[in-house]
Write a structure and sequence with these properties.
Length: 471
């Protein structure tokens, strides 16, 4: 399997190089040259199968020969053994035809663990086979950071720098990033928004000298490995509800568009998906884009679902590439307009192609609180605010197909918002009991590329071991 950049101007890479590259050298995002196809009989066989077995079947074609079957199988088994729930990603019914796909049973109680636990193992494996080290820099609005730190804290091969927007993550999210005690982990509070953090990460990737100097790699969903691992749970959920013998719709609380793009990829691989529904909070750029064809950034507002407080939605670029018939020239032009003017307009055939498969809806703060309260009253089930955004939008758009709303975080990550909405404060699971008492360590930096690069240079050198090659 080979991967191409959405901007058409970077070398094609195999799986291992794509995984370590993160962002393509032309600023684009890698996608597979062709979508592997799963036969309906294979999908039918996923019913009742262990999650790790489905993961192996779905992921093998993307990995190809870069990692042996035995090693891939072992790493998948190890990754999902960190999830205490035997199903890894169980379904819970909350309405006649409405199901929640609980993706928060991993080490940091958010869906990011599903991919991060696997890609940390894959990256370490590839780096150690090559005798190399990597400097991983990631941006987070709260959940990616904690999941990456939990997954890479034991890494012998990577130094990890996580940028989070100061004062804009929940206390639980912040402590998951600042209390690991791991020497190779650096949590950095940036004076700015998540979009600022993400722009800094992309600027570091686009600085070729810096990229080579520190052996830069990334674990945000710009990295194909993240998307790939998230495809699996669309298959497990749909198969247990009757796919391939009936179609299933998915509603996805959306920020950076990675999670819903994984659903699109599952559909391209043969999963009978009916509608893919984008659910946004008040930061509704994607809902506006699907309605008006105009993608226009508009300043981020802080909400009770902070992990979705995003305006520049990286993976939308992958969708534009696919919906335009893989027109890299168009993608390059639109992304240039975005960086120059903060907006672009999708050509008619592209927005029409997107609308044939996607819908979108928005959920404001009052509606988020109402949903949390109503679902608690009706189903005795406590939603986190991100999932509540999804449930609100899903309920507006129920059709004939069963609806699966992705439940992306445990409510205990956002206890204040949940308590304000419904009067109940969710407790952290016992395994996280002492989190709020642990000592925090983090650095603060301005929203300044030079300052950040100096910081990374200094710390990643300190973290690397003498005698080992730096990528
Ligand atoms: C809890 C939660 N829900 C939803 C999202 C949105 O996912 P995506 O960025 O893949 O669209 C995020 C972060 O990205 C998140 O942390
Ligand atoms: N919501 C995310 C933002 C980063 O998204 P990613 O999927 O690109 O890593 C977060 O919680 O950090």
């Amino acid at each position: 399997m080979e991967y191409v950049s959405t901007r058409g101007d970077a070398p094609r890479l195999g799986f291992a190089d794509t995984l370590l590259a993160g962002l393509a050298s032309d600023g684009g995002l890698y996608v597979p040259t062709a979508w592997p196809q799963l036969h309906p009989e294979t999908i039918r066989g996923f019913r009742g199968a262990p999650y790790a077995d489905v993961a192996f079947a779905v992921l093998s074609p993307f990995v190809g020969e870069d990692i042996s079957e035995a090693d891939l199988k072992r790493m998948i088994d190890e990754a999902y053994a960190t999830f205490p729930h035997p199903a890894v990603a169980p379904l819970v019914q909350i309405g006649a035809n409405h199901f929640l796909l609980e993706l928060f049973h991993g080490p940091t109680l958010a869906f990011k663990d599903v991919a991060m636990q696997l890609i940390a193992r894959l990256m370490d494996h590839v780096l150690s086979e090559r005798g190399e080290r990597a400097t991983i820099v990631g941006a987070t609005s709260g959940d990616t950071g904690g999941a990456a730190i939990a997954a890479f804290a034991a890494s012998e091969r990577a130094d990890l720098f996580i940028l989070f927007p100061k004062g804009r993550v929940s206390p639980v999210q912040q402590r998951q990033m600042t209390t690991s005690g791991a020497k190779n982990v650096h949590a950095v509070a940036v004076e700015g928004t998540f979009d600022d953090c993400q722009a800094l990460v992309k600027a570091m990737f686009n600085d070729r000298r810096f990229r080579e100097e520190v052996g830069l790699s990334g674990v945000n969903s710009i990295n194909w490995g993240r998307i790939m691992a998230q495809i699996v749970y669309y298959f497990t959920a749909a198969a247990s509800l009757g796919a391939p013998d009936r179609t299933i719709s998915f509603t996805v609380p959306t920020g950076n568009f990675g999670d819903i793009f994984a659903g699109f990829a599952a559909k391209r691989m043969g999963l009978p998906v009916d509608r893919l529904i984008v659910a946004t909070n008040a930061n509704d750029i994607l809902e506006r884009t699907l309605r008006t064809a105009r993608y226009e950034t508009d300043g981020v507002v802080a909400t009770m679902s902070p992990s979705m407080d995003i305006q520049v939605s990286s993976n939308f670029e992958r969708l534009v590439f696919e919906a335009s018939g893989r027109d890299a020239d168009l993608v390059r032009r639109l992304m240039q307009q975005l960086s120059q003017s903060g907006s672009f307009t999708l050509p008619d055939p592209v927005i029409e192609a997107i609308r044939t498969e996607f819908d979108a809806g928005r959920c404001d703060e009052a509606q988020t609180s109402t949903v949390i309260r109503e679902v608690l009253e009706d189903c005795a089930y406590l939603l986190d605010p991100h999932t509540a955004v999804g449930v609100h939008v899903a309920e507006e758009r129920m059709g004939a197909s069963p609806m699966v709303t992705l439940s992306t975080a445990h409510p205990a990550k956002f206890p204040d918002a949940v308590e304000k909405a419904c009067g109940r404060s969710p407790a952290l699971p016992p395994s996280h009991g002492d989190l709020m008492q642990k000592r925090e360590t983090f650095d603060g930096l301005p929203n300044d590329l030079g300052a950040l690069q100096d910081f990374v240079r200094e710390r990643s050198r300190a973290g690397s071991k003498a005698g080992e090659a730096v990528r």
